[in-house]
Amino acid sequence: MPEDPLSSPLPSPSESRWSDLERPALDAAALTTALTRESRLWRSLEVVERIGSTNAELVARAADDAPEGTVLVAEHQEAGRGRLDRVWTSPPRAGLTVSVLLRPDVPAARRGWLPLLTGVALAEAVGAVPGCRAALKWPNDLLAADGSKLAGILAEAVPAADPPAVVVGVGLNVSTRPDELPEGASSLAMEVGRTVDRAPVLLEFLRALERRYLGWTATLGDPVQSGLAHDYLAWCATVGTEVVVTLPDDSRLEGVAEAVDWDGRLVVRTAGGTVELASGDVRHVRPRA
Fold first, then answer.
1. Which is it for the CA torsion 232, 235, 241, 245, positive or negative?
2. Are the C-beta atoms of residues 115 and 137 closer than 8 Å to each other?
3. Domain check: are 172 and 219 in the same one?
4. Which of 233, 260, 279 is the last residue of a domain?
5. Which of 132, 181, 202, 218 is deepest in the core (most CB within 10 A)?
6. What is the model's pTM?
């Protein structure tokens, strides 16, 4: 019988914490204490050695009444998915693979801002790493200064959950080397030229996500009143540029990305008029050469 990934015990710190000085294991107990001690959102943080998909696992738990504020981190994800079911892979302990369970009490249309809110929190956390500059690409990518991809974000609604739930997953390249990355990708270690400890980045991200999320839900998802829209535009490298958008049927439209609207959609001015695009409406958004 194949071993259940969630039942696989984490190696003890004495066995593995420093077995790879560039890629030490995460200390689940220390992270849990640091994160949940004074948190108004985070209830638990679990680190598993390997799993198919952290998002898929939390989607299943959300449908089974898992509480908001559940955090699941994997040292190695074997069946990671990005937007539109694209494959996402990373060597063990080379990155941060984390999913969170949220139950936002906001109008359904405003939930389109959740991956953008997550992006702002992630950009703030990465920006706190000395020497690292980053920007956001609408709707779900974090980019290095040269436009290479550092991270992806995937938000999934859970229709079977009551109250409504959304699972948001993040995959961030931390110590990944060039030979381990696809073309056009980078990692924090490559950007700053030194080893980067994953634990402080993870805590910084989750604390920033909590601040952003609580402020956003307190205004019923209002991106302007909560300050989210202003801060997202400050990090966004897409708005204000000429873009080529590939649609799900492989047709393309070209124009200027002018804004992100009230529901988190990208507003593009084309020769034929203005269109509003939700993340599910597009396959790719790229700068026009």
1. negative
2. no
3. yes
4. 233
5. 202
6. 0.90
Length of the chain in terms of residues written? 289
Do 135 and 172 sit in the same domain of this protein? yes
CB 205 within 8 A of CB 97: no
Helix (H, G, I), strand (E, B) or coil at 246: strand
Lookup result for tokens 């700068």: 287
- HSE-CB at 83 with a 13 A cutoff on CA atoms is 19
Q: Are residues 24 and 152 in the same domain?
A: yes
Beta partners for 219?
A: none
Encode pLDDT of 89-132 as tens digits.
Answer: 679 999 999 999 999 999 999 999 999 999 999 999 999 999 99
| Res 20: pLDDT | 66
21 in Cβ contact with 64 (< 8 Å):
no
Q: Are 254 and 245 in contact (CB under 8 A)?
A: yes
Report the phi/psi class of residue 77: left, alpha or beta, with left for phi > 0 and alpha for psi in -120 to 50. beta
| Helix, coil or strand: residue 231 | helix
How far apart are the C-alpha atoms of 28 and 32, rounded to whole Å? 6
